[in-house]
Structures are given as C-alpha cells and as structure tokens.
Amino acid sequence: MSCSGILKPFLQALLAAAFMSVSAAEGKTAPVLDAGDGLSAAEVMSGKRDRRDFRNRKTARVLTGIDVLEKGGFQGLVGKRVGLVTNPSGVDRNLRSTIDILYNAPGVELVALYGPEHGVRGDVYAGGKVTDTRDPATGLPVHSLYGATRKPTPEMLKGIDVMVYDIQDVGARSYTFISTLGLVMEACAEQGIEVMVLDRPNPLGGNKIEGSYVEPGYFSFVSQYRIPYIYGLTVGELAMLINEEGLNKGQTGTQQPARCRLTVVPMEGWHRDMLYSDTGLPWVLPSPNIPYSSSPVHYCAAGICGELYGFLNIGIGYTLPFQVFAEEWVNAESLKELLDSYAIPGVAFRTIYFKPLSGRTAGKLVKGVQYFFTDYDKAPVTLVQFYVMQAIATLYPDKKPFETATGVGLFDKVCGSDHIRTVFGRRYKVADIRPFWDKDVEAFRQLSAKYHLYK
After folding, report:
1. Count of structural domains, the chain
2. pTM
C-alpha cells in the first residue's frame, strides 16, 4: 500500500500537538509548522545577528517526535504490537530512551527491537557485526539489521503491527541509518506493516543542499537513494520523499520502488535555519565518531576523503574526528598557506600538530591543518576535502590521493559515481568537478520542497 504526505482523519485531534500522519488514501497537503522566532547558529556565523545577542537569548525549545508522541498519548500505537528501530540517540529531551518510554507506555505493547550499525545500545564499534540477542534492560528480542541481514526478514517482523523508527540522523547520504530506514520500509511494505518515523532535527539545518545524484551502477548501502550528498531534509521528510517519489529501490537501486504505509510524527519548534546547537536538545552521539553536535558538518567536509585509506589522517583515532587533515610528511605551514590562497568562502584554517591515539599513525606526530566554518551559509561544506586534496597534490606530487590510497571503491560509492574520481584525478582541480557536483542541487531543492514539514 502506498502513502503520501497527508493527514489521516483519526489524527485530526492532534494537530495542536503537530502530530502528522502520512496516508495514501487522502489528498490533503502537509501542514507547515511554525516554530516561532528562534535564533540560528547559521545567522550568528554569517554575521546576521550580533554575537552578544546570541549569548543573551535563550535557545529554542524543540520537541522531537518521541516528545510529541508521548504528549499526544501515543496515538497510533495504543492497542498495537510495536517494533522499534533505534540506537542510543533515540531519547527524549530529558534523555530518557525511546525504548524505555515505549516499553512503559500505557496501552502500547513493545515486542521487539531492531539494531542498525553500532547496535541498539551502541555497543558495537564502526563496521562491527551486530548480532541477534536480547536487550538486558527489557528482555526484548533484538534483531540485527547490520551484518548478514540488513533488511528485516518476514520472521523478524512476525506479529508486528507498527514499526517505529527513532534515530538521530546526520543529514548525509552516506550515513547508513537512512539506508536501514529504507530497507525497513521496504520489508514492512511487503508485510502490510505501517512504519512510523519519529522526526528529529537535521543537524546540518534544512537549507543546505550539496552534491550530485547517485548514478546508475553506484547505488549501495552508503548511497542508496537518488538524492544529493547533503539533502537538507529531516529524516521524516526524507522518508516521505523516498516513499512518494519511488526512490526506495533497494541497496542496488535496481528493484521496483517500495511504498509503505507511513506515519511521520513531526517535531514542535524546529525551523529550517536551525543547526543542532539552536534546538536546546541534548546531543547523544548516534555513532562513535560523531561525538559532538557539530560533528555531522565535519563528517560531510572530510568523510569522503576518509574513504581513501592511507592518504590522510582526518582525526579519526584522535579527539577531533573529521576536523583535521594531517600526516607525518605534511608541512603544516605550507599546507595552510596554500589553502588560504584559495579563499574558500566561509572556511578558515589553522596549523595543527598531534599524535593520534589509535589507528594507522597511532603515537606518531602528524602535521597539517584544522578547519573552521566562519560562515556556514556560504561555505561549500563537501568541497573542503577536495580543496585539501588539490593542495596536497600541488605540494606533494608523489602523494596524490588516488595514487596514495589503498582503495578507491568505497570512495566512488560514497560519491555516487566514478566521475568525481576520474575527472578530479586528471589535474586535481576542484574547478573541474564542481559543475558536476552542483548540477542536481536546484532540481532537488524544488522537488524536496514538496515534503517540507517546517518553515
């Protein structure tokens, strides 16, 4: 059964709480939620508001989907057997786990948990295999969705009436939790099970869009949808878009589109120009290398480069994940000087020297640059790493990225095409790839606007 971004009649009473359902049977458009006059970090960084004003004003009070769901008496779940896809980032604004909230919710029967990469309780490190087990706190069965089985099997879904999804997203296409969401939606569509997404802020804000679409032959678990690398949607909005636009075509992008019965529980108080620090919400790391609320932005600025293993240290294994570019053989001052000469809008660099605590260069002194966003609105976030690669190729012709790295397959998958590597690798000039990287941004901006739940 298909669904669209509209309201079901039985949820009309919850409009005041901004509880929105998505159903195929009706043709009403989604309500726009007005969060009030919150002050965004993006405004501060772009100089639109005085920094003293920012310090003196209170941050917004945002309620996430789980807060709104509880406030509304768990409408849509009462009297039903519920499955939950979550991890440690699934908490309310008071840091109570969604697992515990639903397990103790009156009239709600939580019967099974589903663990994506890193597991339900976050006890599996990056790339580690998640196994089927039982949750020690509740005794509920935990089914693995990372490892041999990424898509729930019919047996895993047996007896489930509604599947709830509550995980903090980072706003980047290569982040695998949104791929897990799509596979869950696909499996539930096959079994006639409703999916309920509890919405959360996009920590990159709702306006930043960067990167080209995934090209045929390059769809994968790290590029599962034909969307830009930075897509500027909340996870609830994204779920609506991939469901309604026929983008949920499996891990390889070759299947017939899957469409499920979808309910999105929107936030209250969120604006599109908000970064996570504007929300007043606690940040619970959704995965080990995303420890800070600013980490998602850095993930987008350095994570693609990080797929070139053996090329540069990007802070993984140190206290600054995705915030630096360094290596033993780099002259930090020369690298900073060349990067400064590019005059990248909204980006500044400083030299840095450190010894990684773990990984390939553990205990060795590496040298390079740390970068900062001085104007987030103007900054070409994803291109920062390509400017660094350009500078390295200029300063160290024998250390060019694709010649130095031990593999490029995952790099191509994350980019969604081999075009970036093949064209960039000819001269290592950002200008050569930028037209391709930017080509789908405006088309997606227009397409995705249909699914906006927030101003």
Report:
1. 2
2. 0.86
